[in-house]
Amino acid sequence: MIGTETRTAAGILTLTALRGIGPATAERLAERFSLLEAILGAEPAKLRSVVSAAVAECLQEPAAIVKASEKAQRVLDEADRRGVRVLSIFDTDYPVALRSLADRPPILFVKGQLPPRRSVACIGTREPSEFGEIVSDRIVETLVGANWAIVSGLAIGVDTLSHQSALHHGGRTVAVMAGGLEGIYPKQNSKLAEEILEKDGALISEQPFGVPPSPRNLVQRDRLQSGLSIATFVMQTDIKGGSMHTVRFTIQQDRVLFAPVPQGRHATEPKSQGILAMTQLPASRFAEAVRAEGDYRRILAERYGNRPVAVPLASKEDYASMLGLLESRLAGGETQTVAPPSSPTQMSML
């Protein structure tokens, strides 16, 4: 087992099973040492250039390495039984879109077909109003018609609507999970998860089997939804909704952010206030509204200035420019630009 290559899934899983080693440290060790036995035989000073003295001492205990290797093998065996692929960051088929993330997961658990680069995230509130339901279906239909895969989180509400709409319109969809892939959360979406797999989609998680979808893991999941995607579409959300985590990650990852603009009575709904903030407030006021801090606040100020953070979609007339911007970003073109919205009728539902 100590002859295992560190850059394989088995190697990364072994390293993360050792006391004091997290995902980022495991990746650094794999970059420095090609085999587990090379770590065991490394000079202490060389190890301490990567990890702390306490962790370095643990890394030179053969019994600890063997025990961690056995744990890693149990994970791989269970993955094989469940038809789940375990990808290392060093594997050639690890999603390219995630490689650019500073906090990328070194291990991914994948069931089904890996998402294509032509992917966009569609997210929003767990309690959508009529507006949220209608725009989710219409925007997803347009995206699927242009051959974009839909990434979402399998949660109730907009996530479920986005997955269902993608399948209904003949598209592919990917569910990024907050817990291990042995259990579907929420359980009521178990049938939907099966349909996603049946229609060439995928279930993806960075969490090992047995890990629950805790609040922290749900937030961590959000960065992967935006990270896998060229852009994020926020269909409907309150200013304090959980979707704002994905909005933050989208902006920090320099992805494009789109949002449909509610009009008439729909603009007064609580679940529309986050959308209005993204599409109408200058970035400085948006930062205050979401209580942005640190790096997030700096990015908002430097990148957006007095512009809104989201590209507004006010009517179907905006779909052509929306698709054009997506194609440009896919090709590595311009950074986000916010075009003025069209002038829709008061009750436009896109």
Structure write-up:
The protein has helices at 9-16, 23-32, 36-40, 44-48, 53-59, 62-82, 96-99, 130-145, 158-168, 190-198, 215-227, 243-252, 273-280, 283-290, 294-304, 319-330, and strands at residues 85-88, 107-112, 119-123, 149-152, 173-176, 202-205, 231-234, 256-260, 311-313. The protein folds into two domains: 9-82, Orthogonal Bundle (DNA polymerase, domain 1), CATH 1.10.150; 113-330, Rossmann fold. The chain is globular and about 70 Å long. Residues 336-341 and 343-347 have low confidence and may be disordered. It has 350 residues and is of the alpha/beta class. It has a nine-stranded mixed sheet with strand order 1-2-6-5-4-3-7-8-9, sandwiched between helices. Helix 9 links the parallel strand 4 (149-152) and strand 5. The longest helix is centred in the first third of the chain and has 21 residues, at 62-82. It contains 16 helices and nine strands.
Topology:
Blueprint: H1 9-16, H2 23-32, H3 36-40, H4 44-48, H5 53-59, H6 62-82, E1 85-88, H7 96-99, E2 107-112, E3 119-123, H8 130-145, E4 149-152, H9 158-168, E5 173-176, H10 190-198, E6 202-205, H11 215-227, E7 231-234, H12 243-252, E8 256-260, H13 273-280, H14 283-290, H15 294-304, E9 311-313, H16 319-330
Parallel strand pairs: 3-4, 3-7, 4-5, 5-6, 7-8, 8-9
Antiparallel strand pairs: 1-2, 2-6
